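I am hoping you can look over what I have pasted underneath with an eye to the fold:
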Amino acid sequence: MDQRIWGYVRVSTQSQNYEYQERILLSTGLKFNHIYHEKQTGKNFNRIQYNAMISAASKGDLIVFSSLDRMGRNYNQIIEQWNFITKSKGCDIKIVDMDLLDTSKGNGSLTGQFIGDLVLQILSYVAEVERQKIQNRVKQGLDNARSKGVKLGRPSVKLDKDQVPIVQKYLNNQLSAKEAMEILRLKKSTFYKLMKEYKFKDKK
């Protein structure tokens, strides 16, 4: 059976596009059977397109990523996936921007496998450490903002003085919920949340 070649492109957010990674894959000159695209975080491997690619791949196939962090960002899971793909499934992996991470060039030599596995573990560790640093920076930023009294999350909706009579009419059954929502121009969830808060304040 001829070797099939699969490409995988991943971005983390909906606003990002695949063009840059696609160019890197195509610059290899390889003839891809299919390039899978995914817009999802790399913190784990619970990804629809990634798993579809792994299911489609069989022994002797080649799976290509533009860089290791496009494969994933979790150190332990990258090692686990690498071993599953290369040893359990019998496929080769090529990381375009890291020539040492190309099992198709190893020719099965013990030294080649050792060097490739060693480089993989080092790079995977670096990727995981960087991911944890970013998480810590975000947490520190949020904690710092909270310590300064900055309110995080969506701003709460408050009633204006001229809106209070509408609320009272609704509570006195003079207006239906639908009529009150239309006059106040509020979504259903926001409306009922405000009603709950207003009733609580009114009882104080």
Summary: Residues 196 and 202 are 10 Å apart (CA to CA). The chain has eight helices and four strands.
